[in-house]
Amino acid sequence: MAYLRAFGAYLPSRVVDNHELAAAAGTDAEWILRATGIVERRFAAADESVASLGIHAAKDCLENAGLTARDVGLLLVASSSAEHRFPGPASAIGAGLGITGVPAIDLPIASAGSLFGMALAAHLAPAYGNVLVIGSEVMSRVVARHPVHRDTAILFGDGAGACLIGSQTGFAEIRDSLLASDGDFAEALRLDLDAPLYMDGRTIIMQAARKIPRAISELLERNRVAPAAVEAFLMHQANLNLITRVAQALAVPEDRFFRNIQRYGNTSSASMLIAAAEWRRQHSSPPAGPLVFAAFGAGLHWGALLATP
Question: Looking at residues 231-250, what average pLDDT do you find?
């Protein structure tokens, strides 16, 4: 058995609104809002890194859990924007938390990495105790690579989220998860070495709009949970239009889907955990119904996770 114990988040202080970004991307602020639902996003400072953002989010999560870093038995870190080809940020985050020696594993899975991390943590918690899952991204530096592409530059922001999963107690039990991958579409969304981010937006939105509802539906069906019974859907914040399409496909009111993309943009692997942390701050009591987490990203990788009170 595994339980959700706490969430945490960290957002850089610099706010970049659509007017500022439009000038750099060669478009206009109103078009950005219509196309994405994003009003503003956060950009990391020059002295901030994927690891430093992740450390802040981890500390926030541990404080919310009433624990310290020494209570962590395993660290899983998802990021697609790490500054080095290797090592990844996981070991640096562990060192920054003062838990050198605790195993720290990198999951270089864009957008869906934190969901995969949560699913793995649920299986590993019985062996390692408290597993800290972190998603941390500095995507602003990725999309700033020349040439700047309008369709990607407008989407992304920076931030970090964290989730603590334990084997003994928590505010919700992780019941089940469904993970999937499809390398046939790997070229549609990729970041090559020393090259700008490439995204075939039409293919990605079409695949995501099909695969996410199917994954959620299959997961709920095999656990005999109706979509209407879910208290909150906590998704990767990729695009406001995609979230709307998923809600419509599941015939669930849109207000069941927590949304903060308008304030932070797409923070890749960090976005689902940032959303979960904000949702949890607004709902401090134990949830009255099931929670569904879902994400889709490069690879292609996607999936869903179910937690119940």
Answer: 96
Phi and psi dihedrals of 165, rounded to 5? -120, 130
How many other C-beta atoms are found inside a 10 Å radius of the C-beta of residue 162? 34
Closest CA to 136 of 103, 165, 159: 159
pLDDT at 195: 86
The closest of 289, 228, 235, 231 to 260, measured between CA atoms, is: 235
Q: What is the pLDDT of residue 148?
A: 67
Contact status, residue 304 vs residue 235, Cβ threshold 8 Å? no
Question: Exposed, middle or buried: residue 305 (CB in 10 Å: 0-12, 13-18, 19+)?
Answer: buried
> How far apart are the C-alpha atoms of 171 and 168, rounded to whole Å?
11
Give the contacts of 155 (CB within 8 A, at least 6 positions apart): 36, 38, 143, 238, 239, 265, 266
Q: Is beta strand 189-190 parallel, antiparallel or unpaired with respect to 198-199?
A: antiparallel
Task: Note if the pTM is more than 0.90.
Answer: yes
